[in-house]
Amino acid sequence: MVKAHGNLVGSDNIKAGYVVVLFAASVLYIISCAPGPVWQDSGVIQYRVLQNDIEGRLGLALSHPLFYMLAIAVKYIFPGGFGYEVNIMTAVISAVAVANLFLLLRLWLGSGLAALVGALTLGLSHTFWRHAAIPETYNLVVALLLFELIMLLQYSKTGRTVYLYLLSLVNGLAIANHMLASLAFVCYLVLVVVLAVKKKVGGKDLALMALLWVIGALPYEYLIVKNVLHTGEFWPTVASAVFGASWRNDVLNVSLSGRIVKENFMWMALNFPTPNVLLLFVGLLGLYKVSPRRWFANVLLGLLILFFVFAFRYTVVDRYAFFIPSYCIISMLIGVGASRVLNSKHGNKLGCLVVALAFVTVPVYTAAPTIARKLGIISGRERQIPYRDDYVYFLRPWRTGYKGPEKFAEEILGMVEPGAIVYADTTTAPPLLNTQQIKRMRPDVKIISNIGSGEGTPEFNEMTIEQLLSEKAVYVVSATPRYCPAYLLERYDFVKTGPIYRVIQRQ
Q1: Quick one: pLDDT at residue 187?
Q2: Are 501 and 494 in contact (CB under 8 A)?
Q3: Which of 112, 243, 317, 467 has the fewest CB atoms lying closer than 10 Å?
Q4: 292 and 156 in contact (C-beta within 8 Å)?
Q5: Which of 129, 251, 266 is nearest to 183 (CA)?
């Protein structure tokens, strides 16, 4: 029965199947990705790459040096249209993740069709797809995690410790990309300890695994050592490496509000709006029956629980992105459930239906902005960003042809007076800074933000604002709390000028 469903596009060749999935996913994500500058944290990524900055200024936990090393290399290999190259790099990394999931399930279950269902489930899920269309680090987390699990699967089948060596190296690299990988590290560490107790691995194996892990994590270790030497402070540097500059309370949070729980379930529903989600429960029930070793199933469940619980009680605004690794494991289990259904008595009749249902997400995401707008689900937001329809922006994962950030930046830089000052928040500053530098546009205009500023930017604070207003035109992108300094809101008036606000003396 496995043979009957082992083919993908007419071939039982695993390598060919991998290449087909990789190519198809790459095409989808390259078409879907943003064509240039982007908003918010993704725009900060573009800005850091432009500055060759592998450390950032938000604490070591948010440095993600491996991702930036790759992105900076891509920038130099494909120069000329910065922003788009980094977006494409993320698209290709995301395609590798989808292809890795296909490969893992194909090697594990022997069914190309079940592997395709699992890969489609992840690849067409909302949050993963959205982060394939903009420069972000989370899908690289998944690509490396799936490579680790492929190595773990191969070890479970063959008992060859070389796969544990490779697992250790890749997990080190994953740590150098994002501290989310430390959750997987905990699972692997427990497994290795159990294997050592059972004498499945020896002292030399443990030493080599530790060495390879250290080698893989070198980019991150370099930043930690560099900061210790620079500041002379060990524990504060460790805290920065674990929590970032100011996220200790979010990382260690153990409380939940009704709003957070409601939002979390809404995000999960948005990622799996297909009847195929029922295959998750089939996969969970049959997991131990199809696992090559019982401990392999234990590791998968451990990963699912750790990633899911971490994201569920996290309190940062963009915590929806931290669910991506758990969505990966869920997609894998849906693939396992598909395999069991396809191997049932009615498997031949259900095969095409299950694959077709994986594509239901596309029309759902197409219709979602219209439905949400009628229901007023995200209405009443504090502000509206120019050239951005929040319903479309948040509910459709693709960014094909979307040039809102670039239009926003070009309009502002084209309209303000010579030597003007523009204060921008972390959402709107990146396209301004990136467009100004990439296009060499209006270097006389000074962008003030907490993510970076150009050369010759004046000191901008409560003590200097009066002097600046007497000499220059001063603007803010948003005249609302949280996005504008409190001393400006308290002491000055604002005049709407194009998409921004000019600061004037209060009458």
Answers
A1: 97
A2: yes
A3: 317
A4: yes
A5: 251
Query: Quick one: tokens of 268?
Result: 């999960």
Helix or strand holding residue 139 (H, E): helix 138-158
Phi-psi region of 202 (alpha: psi -120 to 50; beta: other; left: phi over 0): beta
β partners of residue 503: 494
Amino acid 9: pLDDT: 41
pLDDT in tens, 229-255: 999 999 999 999 998 888 888 888 888
Q: Tell me how far CA of residue 286 lies from CA of 156, 289, 297, 339, in angstroms.
A: 18, 5, 10, 10
Residue type for 191, please? L
Which run of H or of E encompasses 493? strand 492-497
pLDDT value at residue 379: 61
Q: Where are the alpha helices (DSSP H) in 272-389?
A: 279-290, 294-312, 324-342, 347-358, 361-375
Per-residue burial over 226-242, b = 16 or more CB atoms within 10 Å of its CB, e = otherwise: ebbeeeeeeeebebbbb
Number of alpha helices (DSSP H) and beta strands (DSSP E) in the chain: 24, 5
Cβ burial, residue 323 (10 Å; 0-12/13-18/19+): buried
DSSP structural state of residue 60: G
At 288, list the tokens.
Answer: 């131990």
pLDDT value, residue 400:
95
Sheet holding 446-448, edge to edge: 446-448, 421-423, 474-476, 500-505, 492-497
Q: How far is CA 93 from the centre of its chain?
A: 11
First to last CA, the chain: 81
3-state secondary structure of 505: strand
Compute the distance between CA of residue 119 and CA of residue 93 in angstroms, rounded to an integer.
Answer: 14
- Separation CA 125–CA 364 (nearest Å): 11
The answer for 341, left when phi > 0, alpha when psi is -120 to 50, beta otherwise, is: alpha
- Report how far Cα 484 is from the mean position of its chain's Cα atoms: 27
How far apart are the C-alpha atoms of 239 and 235, rounded to whole Å?
6
SS3 state of residue 444: coil
Q: Residue 2's pLDDT is what? A: 39
Q: How many CB atoms lie within 10 A of CB 303?
A: 23
Low-confidence ranges of the chain (pLDDT < 70): 1-12, 80-82, 347, 379-382, 454
